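Dissemination and training. As part of the outreach component of the grant, students in the summer workshop were shown how a complex can be specified as a set of sequence lines and then modelled as a single object. The example used during the hands-on session is reproduced here so that future cohorts can follow it. Participants entered these lines:
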Amino acid sequence: MISGKIDKTHGAGGSETSGLIEEIFREAFSNEYLDGLNDSAVVPGGNRLAVTTDSFVVRPVFFPGGDIGRLSVCGTVNDLLTSGATPYYLTAGFILEEGFDTDDLKRIVKSMAETAGEAGVKIITGDTKVIEPADPKEPGLIINTSGIGFVDSWLRIFPSEIKPGDSVILSGNLGDHHAAILSERLSVRNEIRSDAAPLTEMVSHLIKEDIDIHAMRDVTRGGLATILNEFSLTAGVRIRMEEIKIPVSQSVRAFCGLLGLDPLYMGNEGKCVFIIPEKDEERAVDIIRHSRYGENAVPIGRVIEGEACVTIRTAVGGERVVGPLYGEGLPRIC
Amino acid sequence: MISGKIDKTHGAGGSETSGLIEEIFREAFSNEYLDGLNDSAVVPGGNRLAVTTDSFVVRPVFFPGGDIGRLSVCGTVNDLLTSGATPYYLTAGFILEEGFDTDDLKRIVKSMAETAGEAGVKIITGDTKVIEPADPKEPGLIINTSGIGFVDSWLRIFPSEIKPGDSVILSGNLGDHHAAILSERLSVRNEIRSDAAPLTEMVSHLIKEDIDIHAMRDVTRGGLATILNEFSLTAGVRIRMEEIKIPVSQSVRAFCGLLGLDPLYMGNEGKCVFIIPEKDEERAVDIIRHSRYGENAVPIGRVIEGEACVTIRTAVGGERVVGPLYGEGLPRIC
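and obtained this result:
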């Protein structure tokens, strides 16, 4: 039976590694593909594959509203969804720091399994390594997940499809995840919880209802400003946001005011921005609001002709350019 | 232009991250899928997918015969091959320690690209994070690769297919990678070089020539002894090796003698063990020897009826049980 602390033997490839896999990972993730005995999982294929990978290094590994395990599933699932793919399979690569607690690992793995269930994906293969801890007093872990999905061949969801006149819709409040992590790091007590969530329902409803999505992206590292700048450059259009419409919760707004943070550059883990034709705007907002995690969806701006850039119209009527994120941001938020 | 040291901004998701991706990864890996602008790569699909993931944490990151980049491609490609799949696509997740040199990163990425070319795979999507270094004097990196391949539906390569009478064939000398890494760590001067290599040619030749492979596995962490024990348990058979036939180079043998290491438990990164029917033995050895990296292939033992266990017949005629790896092994060899 596995208990106590992780040590190097858990990553050496011998019997302790087998024990760890059997007792912790296979126990939690059990499915017909993972239960095979080869190093690769073999799964039924489809027509067009979507593939993505993401490593999760967030500290602390547990935080209000989630943990690194939930994050590692949401992040990769949302990357697949926003590529227009239906997520099917995840891989899980664990890089464990020596001294990490096996009970904490079990909690994280359980959280991954639950989130995978909610998102409708299966974790089909994995790998474990153990390394020295950066801080021996607080050993942590890193999780890499790669995702595989299938794409309906008629979908064309690319930033290059964005056209002047399109509406910019945000699926909910900005800044929750970033502010939750930072609050934990600073030991600030507040009500803020990470928004970490798989957006399977929201995106699949929009596609099923034939909303003509031109582009979509989950709003993670770099924040909304960075994504809209990428969109604007790729499509060669101007994107104008209305400051008054950007949804931010009272507690996050207060927290940001205190620290001088801008929600436009903060990372989220359960928010998506959609660019869609104006004619679909009302219907799309309605569909998102009736989907899980989309209750605060709102149109926040519009694509207009002009030099590629992103601007925001302030509450008092001014308009300023909003660049992409420069510099550090907060490291290890995901 | 990227130069100098990696810092946290390279992982923050802003413009410095884009610069890193553009100038280092996309430059080296460029292909029609990776060059898309979404977070996932979309690739043409097939009938049955093979999926695998592996994280590479080896220290030092450069060593005689290879580097962490070459390793990260070989390991994942070989996992796909030994599942009976033709490798097609790799993902690459980079976890960089702050302070790591960008020139070293370029070298590693170039090595990955070259090895991918040799192995016949494309790296189609990636991710970058930056973390604090465990040892600020020697910042390193971790690479996760996930692999996707397609499986011909008629192939049945599983340890459960192993039958009494089968021949055990090893594709070459044991211990080179493990001994090369350990020599570097101990600053021992010798001729030993890692065997890191993609086994695409060897495995595809065997399959094309209709060799009826019952099981195969690349001999990595845990060594040959651990793999044969897994095979033996899964198939419920005894596997007997002949000590005199196990191929080990003179220099590795000398190195092992000095340190009391057993090549049966040492990790390799370009060796494969095949279990095939006796009738195919001669032909299979011939095919492997005429394939790249297979020149020292040799039959090393046989599957026999009896209680599941692995034994070795020594040069003087004794026979002893060979268990799987227990305990630490050498950490961070892959």
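Chain B has a mean pLDDT of 90. Students were then asked to discuss how this feature might be tested experimentally.
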